[in-house]
Structures are given as C-alpha cells and as structure tokens.
Design a protein that fits this description.
By secondary structure, the chain is an alpha/beta fold. Helix content is about 40%, strand content about 20%.
C-alpha cells in the first residue's frame, strides 16, 4: 500500500507521557485533532486546537464516560477502506469523515491488580472504547496509523518528516502488530484475573501476558534465538532486577540466576547460594553475609568458578571484597551499599543485579513447560516444610541441631534437579548430588563431593523424594551422616527405616516431595 497522508487524528490516552510534544507536531503538520475527556483537557491546556469527540459525533459522553467513542462517525471513519467504492459512498451518504490516525492506550488495569484494588474498581478499569478503537485502526492499517505506545511517537514523527506528513505501509503494519499484541495481552490479563475470582485455576483457554524486556544474544546454544519477557505479577526476581554493571546477560545466565535467587529466598538468616548449571554447588547461612559466602564457597570451590552467586541481604563491602576474589558470572542481591558497588566496579565482566527485594518462597511463580504440540502448566512449588511438619520414624529422635540442618538441607534439595541428595552440616552444604537417573548415584556423588572438601561425617542427608530402597540411605550412612530427611511413601519404607535404626541414625518424613525436573 501507498503512504497515507495524515489529515485527521483521534487521540484518547490514559498514559499521557510525551503526548503534548507529539500532538504539537501533528498540529504543525495541519492534522485535525479529535479527542475526549482528560486527553482533550490536557491538549487544550497546552494551547492546542482540539475538537471534542462529542462535538464531532453530535452525541454526548454518557454513563461516566463508558460511552463516548463507540459511534458510527468514529468507527466508520477508522474502518472505511479508502479504495472501496461502496465504503466511500457510505461515508459520503452518512457524512463520515476519515480518521487517518488513532493514538490510544488503555485504562491501567494492570496497575489496579498490582495495588490490590477491589473487584468493583478493577471492573471499572476495564477499557472498552480503547480496545475497540485500537482493533479497528489495526485491522484497517492499510490506511490508518495506530499508535499505542508513547515510545513509538518518535518513529512516527520521523517518518512524517521524511514523507511530508505521511506514514508508510511498513510502519503501519508494525504498529498494528504492536497494537494487536497490546490488546491481546490486556484481554488475557483480565481473563486470568476474572477466572481467578471464580476459583478457576485451569480455565478452558490458558493465557499468559508478558512483555519483551530484551532480545538476547542467543539461547542455550549460539544457534538458538532467545529473548527475555517480564510478566505483571510484581514478584521480585531476575527478570525485573536492575543490572548495575557487567556485560549483557545470556539465556543461561538468567536461568542460573533465577535458580539461585529462588533458593536464597528460602532462608531468613544471612545466606548465600552459588549455582552452576541451574544446580546449587554451595549453600550456607551464617551470622553475616561474608561468613555465609565463605561457607558456601568451601563446599565446592572448583564448581563455583564461573558460577552465579545469590544473597538474601544487602550486599556489604566485606562480602563484596570476598566475592571479588572469585570469577563469578553473576551476583544478585536485594540491595547493595555504595562501598560494595565500588568494590565490584573493577570486575568489569561480572554482572551485578539489584532486585529490590527477595522472592517469597510461599508465592512461587506458576510453572509453564513447553511440549511438542502443547504446554504443561502447574502451580509453583510453594510448600515450605517446618519443624512441626516432621514425623519421626526411627528409634532415635533428631537433636535440635540436627533438625535445623535437616530443614536446611531439605530446602536445598527442593531447588536441586531430581534425583537430588544433599548433605549439610551447621547450616552449610557439604555435598550435593543432582540430576542423576538413580538416587543411589546422587547419594554417591554427594558423598564424593563431600570427601573432596569438607567431609560428610556428622552431616545430615536430605532426599527430594523417597528412598525406594535402603541402598541410597546406606551410602549416606557410610559417608557419615547422623540423620536423614525424606518425604516417605515408598513400598519399602520399613526396609529404609530399619537401615536407619541399624545405623542408629535419626530419620524424619515430611510427606512432601520436591521433584524438580
């Protein structure tokens, strides 16, 4: 299609960012401006000549503004094809003036949800006229320019300057695609919210609403394309964190950082998590961040090289100095003081992210996993096992210190790829076995890792799922554990309990499994 000269524009926006300069530019191009309500008021205050939509249609706004642009003189002017003789005849017969540009964005429904508005207020912030206008203009983008994002104003002005007041077909098509994406996301969010009020966790049509934050250099491998999108749930984490320094984050960086930050959110005391390839290789909590970091690093300093470090308290200078001695790909923290930031500036390749807050483990993000021809959807794993949840299964009860370590180790196992076995002692992992086809192999790997550095003697063992046989537990016993925690529920629980009793170790069941595939 040819360029379209803009002669008349309808402007009706909630977000008035950059609006006045854009409208002044249109006026300088001799574009007639139609507008409504607060938008018309803002433009008139800026000294611009504006025709109220009610004057254009001869029909007043009513019902608290619910009805204002829903009129044939508006939608006819937007939807009419200029190359269709019947359309032109209808416009002439009914005195419908063409509208060549629509500038519209929507009532802030997302903001209502973020601030916890009540049901009635949310309903009133569901835009009707805006989506109708946007979809009409987008459908007719052969002739009409639709602008829904203030960040696109500059591109529109640049093209109009180059073409003497017109927009080209490529720009109009791109803007229409953006607009349809906006209304689709808007409606999807409303649907998800309304379904939630009906206690409908898994509706007939499942929709997600995410917004592009950045295109990544590549995906898991260089031949794969990838991008980062953010959602509207407001949950703190890697997707919404502010990058303070360092080169661009990769797909794998983001995935590993998310795994680390979700795990560190499980702890109340100062804690540090070091992750490599989405699995924790060192986790510890202590009285200070610096002490926690040194304990986490000691678990597996070889694997920690080039890893991701997550902390749950504001980054301080002492901890920053300690971290600076290691090559780490990413460090993420809720905050960082000025001295800590200055200490890491010299580490130019280290990405430092400030997330603002720590994720709440009781409100885990919904899981979505792609399949060939579909997706799997599930609630996030927000179960947090506490001491009162533990069921003692052995003759010997765990000591107070063992219970603390058992709960600590089980939190780590929850965030370790299954099959997962974690050995821990004094609030510190000493060995981690992750992602093996056999739970026995995970137990062996965890024992081998422990033997390399801190040793497993006097530690406790955590298993993310039940021990199907006593063999996995026996490996942990041979490594020197004094207590074990597992979900229980195996057909051979009695055999496993007997092995624990024979070794005089304590064992507790949680009744909760934490597979992480």
């Amino acid at each position: 299609m040819a360029d379209t000269i803009i002669t008349r524009a309808l402007i009706s926006v909630f977000d008035k960012s950059l609006l006045v300069p854009f409208a002044k530019f249109l006026a300088e191009c001799d574009v007639e401006i139609l507008s409504t309500g607060g938008t018309a008021h803002a433009l008139k205050e800026a000294g611009l000549a504006v025709t109220d939509v009610s004057d254009h249609t001869g029909f007043p706004e009513m019902m608290d503004g619910r009805v204002k642009t829903l009129h044939p003189l508006i939608h006819g002017g937007v939807l009419a094809r200029r190359d269709n003789e019947d359309h032109r005849a209808a416009m002439s017969q009914h005195t419908i003036a063409p509208i060549d540009m629509v500038v519209s964005n929507l009532y802030p429904f997302e903001e209502m949800l973020r601030r916890g508005a009540d049901f009635t207020e949310c309903i009133e912030n569901i835009d009707i006229g805006g989506p109708a206008l946007i979809r009409s203009a987008s459908k007719n983008h052969d002739f009409v320019t639709i602008v829904t994002d203030p960040s696109d104003y500059e591109a529109v002005m640049a093209e109009m300057r180059e073409t003497g007041g017109a927009t080209g077909a490529d720009l109009r098509k791109r803007l229409a695609a953006t607009a349809f994406g906006r209304t689709a996301a808007y409606d999807a969010l409303i649907a998800r919210w309304l379904e939630g009020t009906c206690s409908n966790s898994f509706p007939q049509r499942f929709t997600i609403t995410v917004t592009l934050k950045q295109q990544l250099r590549y995906g898991e491998n260089p031949h794969q394309e990838a991008a980062l999108y953010v959602n509207e749930d407001g949950r703190p984490g890697v997707a919404t964190a502010r990058q303070v320094q360092g080169k661009e984050l990769s797909y794998n960086n983001l995935n590993d950082t998310n795994a680390a930050y979700e795990l560190v959110g499980e702890f109340e005391k100062p804690a540090v998590v070091i992750v490599k390839h989405a699995n924790p290789c060192g986790v510890a909590e202590a009285g200070t961040l610096e002490a926690a970091y040194k304990k986490a690093l000691a678990c597996d300093p070889v694997s920690a090289f080039g890893g991701v470090i997550a902390i749950n308290y504001p980054l301080d200078l002492a901890t920053a100095n300690a971290i600076a001695e290691l090559f780490a790909e990413v460090v993420i923290a809720p905050q960082a003081d000025d001295d800590a930031l200055a200490a890491l500036i010299a580490k130019k390749n280290m990405r430092l992210l400030i997330a603002g807050a720590v994720p709440d483990p009781s409100t885990s993000t919904m899981g979505i996993h792609s399949l060939s021809g579909g997706v799997l959807v599930q609630d996030g794993d927000s179960n947090c096992v506490r001491a009162p949840d533990l069921k003692i299964m052995t003759k010997r009860s765990p000591t107070t210190a063992e219970i603390k370590d058992l709960l600590f180790a089980f939190k780590v196992a929850k965030h370790t790829k299954s099959n997962a076995i974690v050995y821990a002692r004094d609030g510190q992992t000493v060995g981690v076995g992750a992602g093996q086809m056999s739970r026995v192999d995970s137990a062996r790997i965890a024992a081998w890792k422990a033997a390399e550095h801190l040793g497993a003697k006097g530690s406790v063992a955590a298993s993310d799922a039940f021990f199907p046989f006593a063999d996995g537990l026996n490996i942990a016993i041979e490594a020197g554990v004094t207590a074990a925690i597992q979900p229980g529920g195996s057909m051979r629980d009695d055999e496993v309990i007997a092995a624990a009793n024979d070794a005089d170790i304590a064992m507790v069941f949680t009744g909760v499994r934490h597979f992480r595939h």
